[in-house]
Amino acid sequence: MDHARILNFLNSLQNQDSTQQSDNTQSSQESLKSLYEKITKEYSLQRARTLSREERLANHLTSNSLSYGEIEFKSLSMVFQCVSPKKGGVFYDLGSGIGKGVIAASLMHQFDICKGIECLHSLHEQACNLKQEMEQIGVYEYQLPKIEFINGDVRELDWTDGTFLFASTTCFDPDLMKQLSKKAADLKEGSYFITVTKTLDPQTGWDLCNCHGGWLRFTFNKRK
Ligand SMILES: C[S@@+](CC[C@H](N)C(=O)[O-])C[C@H]1O[C@@H](n2cnc3c(N)ncnc32)[C@H](O)[C@@H]1O
Question: Which pTM value belongs to this model?
Answer without folding.
Answer: 0.89
